[in-house]
UniProtKB/TrEMBL annotation:
It is found in: Nucleus. Its main location: nucleus. This is TF-B3 domain-containing protein. Keywords: DNA-binding, Nucleus, Transcription, Transcription regulation. It comes from Salix purpurea (Purple osier willow). GO terms for molecular function: DNA binding. GO terms for cellular component: nucleus. CDD domains: B3_DNA.
């Protein structure tokens, strides 16, 4: 189930991924600080990094992915303009998955 899609900004990469307000209803259970076991894949389905645990916290009324997100963004080579889609997916390794589409990709 898709939770949100977001085109990344430099702030998302440097300070933490601020989750889109339009997806807050689907993210109600994320309020407070929780840990999410997450897989990161390219648009073609190739795994980019090992599963990571991302901490989601509430900051200034926004939900933000912080700890874990920084390493994931660095290791996957994320840049401003890239698009990520965040899914809930039940499988043996993780409950959540990001898919990446590079800024220049269609």
């Amino acid at each position: 189930m898709e939770i949100f899609t977001k085109q990344l900004t430099s702030i998302d990469i440097q300070r933490g991924l601020v989750l889109p307000r339009c997806s807050l209803e689907r993210l109600e259970s994320f309020h407070g600080t929780i840990e999410l076991s997450t897989i990161f894949e390219s648009a073609a389905g190739n795994r980019l990094v090992d599963p990571v645990t991302i901490h989601c916290s509430t900051s200034a009324g926004n939900l933000v992915f912080k700890t874990g997100w920084y390493a994931l963004a660095r290791d996957a080579g994320l840049r401003s303009g890239d698009t990520v889609t965040f899914y809930q997916e039940i499988n043996g390794e993780a409950r959540y998955k990001f898919k990446l589409r590079n800024g220049g990709s269609s």
